[in-house]
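Side project, low priority. Logging it here so it doesn't get lost.
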Amino acid sequence: MFDHYRASALRGAYAVGQTARLVARYHYVEAQLMRVAAGRLAELETWEVKCLIGRHLWQDSLHAQSWLDRLVDLRWPRKASLDPGRATIQLLALLDAAPTEDTFLRALYRTLKPRLVAGYTAHLNAAAPLADEPTCILLQQTSTQEQEQIAAGTALLDTLPAHERGHEAWMEAVEVAATAVGSFGLPADDVGREEAGHFEGQAIRPAPAVAARDARFGFAANGFDRVAQEPGEAVRLMAHRDADNEMHAAEVLGRNLYEHPEMPWQYHVDMARQCWDEVRHAVLYQKYLEEHGGRLGDYPIVPGNYAYRMSLDFPHRLYDLHLRGEKLGMPDLIRMRDAARRAGDDSYAILNDYVHADEVPHVKNGRWLHQLLAHDRTAYERVERETMQFRAAYEQGHPDDPLLQAYTGLSQAVLKRNEG
């Protein structure tokens, strides 16, 4: 008779308390990888790097959530993080301070994540395969996904220009810090003290005033004004604009996650998911652009919604993104989906259908503004009114800003083409 558990040993190297300390460290590392990557997104120049980091930070948020759930199973009574030990904290702080895109990627994919996978493997080999099967399953699943991340990250690194010199000392410091941590898969004596929260006390690097773009892109004050008259040009222009604009939204969300360690853990998970969604939307519009013979860089770009929204404080930024921009754009997505269906443009129809579906939880994320304001209705109405006033004042002061053109202005070009 087949017995799935026939080869499963009864004993393992770690008791429940030791396993809990390991799981606490895993949660901390994955959560910090999510947060650091989110804060870095607007500074990364290479478009493909932004796209990959957006996907990986969301996956890391899921890993962190899974480890937190397991920590509760292991007799930890509340969903609170544990101090992972000074060496681990210092290593993650160094990653946050990476001086360039290249050093950030090398530290992430060639040093830190491989050591994390090695720790997962060591723990899996030492764990009680039956008594602690829930942890073993998580170790297997998370390790597999992290290995996929490493493969994708190193493959991307291999296609980028040779790394610049001058940062060898920083890379050496990362290696020294990683060595001081030792194996992530061995319990550490200094892991066990509960933290007040997940990210309190974290350093916050200043945000760039303008989100970085690589050499393919050219900034122009009126970048959307240049529209040639040949067929399909308006379609390509709109797809190019929307690809860049969606990336702006992801970059704002990354900063919102990174800059507010005081917010609850679930807020960070929600922002990581929406950040990934916006990156994915950017890629969708990029693919549609390419399907119609265009490519990134064909049109100038402007500082965009990132620059404007980053000029707002946190409450007004939350309202402007979730409860104004996302909410008001949803009817256009439905109209464009339906017009594309009538015209037989399956690519544009499915793009708008899924983007609209994603926007529903994005608008619901506006609930974090209510929580931030302690559900004070008067305060909420004030933020709502002020956000609209700020937007109106900006529009009046920047009449030539192409971002302030009616969204349906370019949409009509696509609708006309589809219905023609």
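Brief comment: The two ends are 67 Å apart (CA to CA).
Revisit when time allows.
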